[in-house]
Amino acid sequence: MMNPRTVQKIAFFSLFLSTLLIVVPVGMIVVIIVQKGLPAITWQFLTDVPRQGMRAGGIFPAIVGTLYLVLGAVAFALPIGLLAAIYLSEYARDNVMNRIVKLAIVNLAGVPSVVYGLFGLAMFVVWCRFGASILSGALTLGIMILPIIITASREALEAVPQTFREVSLSLGASKWQTIRHIVLPNAIPGIITGTILGIGRAAGETAPILFTVAAFYLPRLPKSIFDQAMALPYHLYVISTQVPNVDEKVRYGTAFVLLAMVLTVNLVAIVIRYKFRKQKKW
After folding, report:
1. How many CA atoms lie within 13 A of 76 on its CB side?
2. What count of other Cβ atoms lies within 10 Å of the Cβ of residue 49?
3. N or C: which terminus of the chain carries fewer CB neighbours within 10 A?
4. 57-75 confidence digits (pLDDT tens)
5. What are 140-191's pLDDT values in tens digits?
6. DSSP 147-187
7. Alpha-carbon distance 128 to 122, whole Å?
8. Element (H, E) at 214
9. Does this model's pTM top 0.85?
10. What class, spelled out in words, does domain 36-46+58-236+247-278 have in CATH?
11. Which of 22, 65, 112, 23 is nearest to 257 (CA)?
12. Is 50 helix (H, G, I), strand (E, B) or coil?
């Protein structure tokens, strides 16, 4: 029988090795993107429109289009996802049907993004007649991140101790007052975590916007939600595969901007989550 200290050392080494296998590749990707993309970052690159068939100029329309799509997706998915999570966690009975619904929501989070793109094309572009537009793209991305937000929000609500609800109800508060004033404030950090994950996925997807909104070359800003728009993920794909003789630093510069946008939004959300966590009493 092995010595407990030896077992502990083996377990520690295995966990440390597993962590390195995750952290090192991610770190290398970030370092390569920053190293090769940073030289391309200039004021003109960030604020100018594409020129000469996207071989020159900047990526400002793609930045604006990405922000519109992400904000639209979150504005659509967060309220619906939160309300669905509240119903599943606080109101729905624990029966076979609700278990199937919860399992289906979890499974939907793993559906390939191209499937959501085809659904958005059939539903919003064709059936709803929104056409290829920011509205179609934002709704498609919103549906794609909806399972993530529902799952994270439901787990955050269920993590709030049941005694909090019992004390509130015993003092005469209604069920909705208990949810609104007791459960939700304590579940906000977990809800924000789900929103962060949703933003990260929505900002980096190419397939859904390819079918519903993305324009190959559109050197102007959209004027309404029914206009097409450029987006950083699709723009990066185009200049990397479809446009010849594009300077390498332009491709990596675009990837750097996309990465910086996602990290910035995540950082802001993490700071907000941290402030709410400090207010917790448990």
Report:
1. 21
2. 16
3. N
4. 888 999 999 999 999 999 9
5. 999 999 999 999 999 899 888 888 888 888 888 888 999 988 898 888 888 8
6. HHHHHHHHHHHHHS-HHHHHHHHHTT--HHHHIIIIIHHHH
7. 9
8. none
9. yes
10. mainly alpha
11. 65
12. strand
